[in-house]
Amino acid sequence: MSRALKVLGAAALGALAWGTLVEPRLFTVRRHSLPLLPAGAHPLRILQLSDLHLAPWQTGKVDWVRGLVELRPDLVVLTGDQMGHLEARGALLHAFESFADAGIPGVFVHGSNDYYGPIAKNPFNYLRAPSRLATRMPDLDNAALTRGLLDLGLIDLNNSATRMTLRGTDVELFGLGDPHIRYDDPVRMRSARQALEADHPATPDTVQLGVVHAPYQRALNELLDDGAGLILAGHTHGGQVRLPGLGALTANCDLPVRQARGLSVWYDAEHAAYLNVSAGLGGSIYANVRFACRPEASLITLEARDS
User: Fold this and answer.
1) pTM for the predicted model, two decimal places
2) pLDDT band of 117, cuts 50, 70, 90
3) Which of 111, 210, 216, 217 could be bridged to 228 by S-S, CB 3.0 to 4.6 A?
4) What is the bridge-based pairing of β-strands 242-243 and 247-248?
């Protein structure tokens, strides 16, 4: 075997070891600041947690998430695919319990993996096309997961909406069920928003945030049309494998690949909104690989437009 082939083989083995044993555990916080609040408003810190794909034995991930309470966010937003194993619910609720104990409000939407447990698949299919609509019956107890999150004080935004006041700023949040499995229902979401409006009309200074798990274009457009100034999503894992100079190889949906991770702008002819797609904190237990795409939480600071 030539020296060049030996070097190439060693590099490939090193990359494989890094992507399977090291990088999936290098949790990080990705930070952004956006001028979305009315003049004179106090800054708001939003912590977005997505795609934990938690398995019961991943205690390091649980401890890291619990420690994020030290960031002192004003709001926690969970953007789905938190479950990664049939027996993960207890560990998952324990991970989020620290925010409830600190009195930090939160909201959530579900992703497909909060209904369906993981199964072994050909990982290369992930790179060829978005994963297909499930044909099997849901095998996770999503109702129990939802109850557990509600018991922690989190608000369910699946095809729903809510309003809250954070540090003196009125915030309206509205969300869709997971478009990846066609659980999104804009009609129900808008009905919930209309009920809020009837009880307490919004003001021009009300900040509007849209939430969805999978950033399919149809869902982003619905949230954009409804006036979201910021849309939070997950699902893509940031591509999970990114190549230097090229970025993500896939978004696992019809989102342009260049927007598969981080902050960008989503717009049409009449509207525009910031879009943050979190690369998330995990992956399937059958393909938990990360390369040039560290697992992340997003800390987004909303600031006054005049700051």
Assistant:
1) 0.94
2) very high
3) 210
4) antiparallel
